[in-house]
Amino acid sequence: MNQATSSYKCYLVCVFVAFGAIGTTAGATLPMVIRSFEWSYLAAGWLFATSAACYLAASWASGGWIPKLGLRRMLVVGLCLQGLGMGAFGRFSDLSWNLICFGILGLGQGMVEVSTNVGVVEVECDGQSRLMNMVHSGFTVGAILAPFVVGWIAATGMPWQQIYLALAYVACIMVIWTVFQPGLSPAQRDAARREDDHPSTMRRNEKSLLILLCWTIFLYVGAEIGVSNWLAEYFVQHHQASTTFGANAVAVFWLGIFLGRLLLGLGWGKGDAHALLKGFSVVGSIFLMLALLASSAWVALCLFWVSGLGFSIVYPCVMSLAGHVFPHDQSRVVAWISASGGLGVWLFPLLMSMISQHWDIQAGFWFYTSLSFLMLVAVFAAGRLPIQVPEES
Q: What domains lie within the chain, and their CATH numbers?
């Protein structure tokens, strides 16, 4: 591996470390935000829904923007929007102001996620998903660190807004790095242009696979991000835990996801990608259900950790499969799948907030559990399609 390639891969990982920290901070701070601004669950649900709607729009549009603008410009704009949204959130208690902030944040997240995933699948070796797992492991590193910092802030009594301001500065640092990072142009733009030289000729089975992959991510991301966003409040409200415990629970959940992606990225679990996807998904869904049945906060925490371990490979595995099965239409396919996740992140947390507002937060989490079992249907259906899928090597 030459120095330029190593630098490029390191950059992609660091982008997703920052992306993971930004993406999980809202859930980790949710109990403090709700009580500080005296918001209802429904108000918090609209906050997440606004961010997700803008994420969905940006994800969908990014598939067409990347071939025209290139990865560097897309990432610079996306990171700037993330920094602006994080820095402005929580400055005032007015819900409208914070909805705008989260909308700006969502636009940036959609642009950054699709651009990074496209950058990964362009350099990933055929038949492998290790770089995709490595980059998404970077996401989980940020997703672990940010909630732990939130827990420390809660324990020390510092204003929770400080973590948002700190992450805004991190986004600014990543913007500067992006401007000077070699490898983002012109090679990637040339590769993107070559996609347009190969008109899409999907066979019927390939179209069916794409629909099932989109359906899988639609349900998975909606459940994964939904659990992450509401897990701190779940422990505070249902188990009567402290806000520090709740924030740390988010970190523990992502720690399970990180461990699974790290093991796979290091070569553990070689074999049929669909078999791995089915096995891990079953573990994640079953242990999520068991976590809700636990009466002890500590037992529930351990079960949520195993659930995170089970769900760990779903997203990177699906993205890698898409990149290998659709090599000449990667930007658009990745954007479609990402947009499917954005639709789930928009729809399901909003429904969950309505369920929790009407009944209780436990009912909302059972709703997420049902989504994970519906995801299994899509995963097993995709595995039955007669399409040659590369093995992990």
A: 3-383 (1.20.1250.20)
